[in-house]
Amino acid sequence: MFRFPKFTYQRFPRFGRPVSFHIIAVGTSTTLVCLASLAAGRRTIRCDDESTERDEEAREAFPGAFHKPKWRSQQWLSADSILRGPTVYSKDHEKLGISRCDGISVASNGESEDHVTIFFGGIEEGQDTRSYFGLFDGHNGSATSDFLGENLIQFLQKTLARFPHQCDYSVNLDMYAEASDIESDPVNDMIKQVFKEVDDAITDVSEVLSSSSRMNAVRTLRYAYSGSCALVSVFEPDTRLLRVAVTGDSRAVLGRKIKNKKTADGRDMYEVHVLSQDQNAYNEDEEARMNAEHPGEKIMDNGRVMGWGISRSFGNGAYKWPLDVQKKLHEKYLGDRPRPNVKTPPYFTAEPVITTTTVQQGDFLIMASDGLWDILTNEEVVGLVGVWLENNHIAVWPGDKRRDYGKTVFEDERVYDRDGLPVEMKPDHTSMYRYWKADKRFVNKDPSVAWHLVRNALGGADSDLCEALLSLTQPRSRRFRYVPVPV
Question: pLDDT digits over 337-386, tens only?
């Protein structure tokens, strides 16, 4: 199982403990700056010290007013240095049905709250050949997404490995052509059960309440006070079924080449298949579900769900625990005070909505957290992958045994606008490029499709804008740049 590194970019190192007491000390809630004299023989610094020869020398060396701060290129990482992430190849693309997976993480906060987990199926006789892909978009800290990244896919794989593949693909192709219409599916039911079992374990307070230890409570419940979305895809090569389970507002989109249809300049055209629906305040089904569960309460307000951007999640115990439990945690275990708008919990659920799709040869899947979809439309993302494939098909299709994708990129100096992408466009309702006061203009220069997507989400052909957005540090960065983890 492969997991992406948590941090891709960090502008400055963070201090985890006091360093060099004569320079700086870090307190529990305040940064304490301690001034000390480093000049030999001078034990005190006074504002009314008389001038000395050394002061005169200093003034000659630094004449005039204090110099304005200036940035130096060596202080900053370039966009090309930041836009980096791994590419992982399957052991046997013919048996597993998957060629490669590209990934990248660009944090918007100082600490990334997101995780990606990849588990390729086994190729030996009797092994589970399913492949698993998990994207976990954390919020209110990284504890929950950390836990899911380390445990959910592993638990799901071990559970489904005991399940045989539903049937032989070659015999039952017609039945699975309409698989997404099947309401009850034993594998989907098992995925839902695994999601709920993991969330129940995260939010369980029985061990905490059976002890008087506040230390134990704080350490145990950090996974429950934090929260995370989850987007999990499971691919069965025998049946060519792709199952996508979503809890939260991350999104999976599949791109498919259209047979016998070309652009005006002879390039392949692609169609867009959205495999998940964002579970947020704009989802009418979610609004109806929550209003039915909590009649008379104001659940959705100003594009938020109980103040949050999602209607389903792991963790977020403050919106799941009974009020008497929350009061006890607050009074005895350093727990948070119950929210005024929490009246009839639970509000959030970790139960996923699952879609099932029959995959065709040449299909590609994009899984990304909401940051990417806030900037680029489904059609733009599929179209961008399409132009990338035109230049990198040798690297994607495993006929090239070297798998040195960095050396198989063809030069592409074109600049693309939306209408130049090989996909039928729909209206663009995204707002970030307008917020940046820039036009959407795209480039195709990266050897990884994940790097390619993020570059074009953060300025594209406007390299100065891209560098500027990636130079922003917290807290301002979150207002301008929010692209967590595309895969």
Answer: 999 999 999 999 999 999 999 999 999 999 999 999 999 999 999 999 99
Name the CATH superfamily, with its identifier, for domain 2-6+76-278+312-369.
PPM-type phosphatase domain (3.60.40.10)
Which among 100, 84, 71, 64 is positioned nearest to 9, based on CA atoms?
84
Q: pLDDT tens for residues 413-472?
A: 899 999 999 999 999 999 999 999 999 999 999 999 999 999 999 999 999 999 999 998
Residue for token pair 């230390």: 215
Say if CB 318 and CB 336 are below 8 A apart.
yes
Q: Is the dihedral of CA 173, 174, 177, 178 positive or negative?
A: negative
Question: 335, exposed or middle or buried, with CB in 10 Å at 0-12, 13-18, 19+?
Answer: buried
pLDDT at 165 > cutoff 60: no
Task: Tell me how far apart the alpha carbons of residues 436 and 453 are, in angstroms, rounded to a whole number.
Answer: 18
- The residue that leads in pLDDT, 210 or 10, is 210
Could you state, in order of their start, the residue ranges of all structural domains in the chain? Answer: 2-6+76-278+312-369
Give CA angle at 69 (64, 73), nearest 5°.
130
Please give the Cα distance from 178 to 239 (Å, whole number).
12
Report how far apart, in Å, the C-alpha atoms of 251 and of each of 4, 237, 384, 391 are: 19, 22, 17, 26
pLDDT at site 480: 82
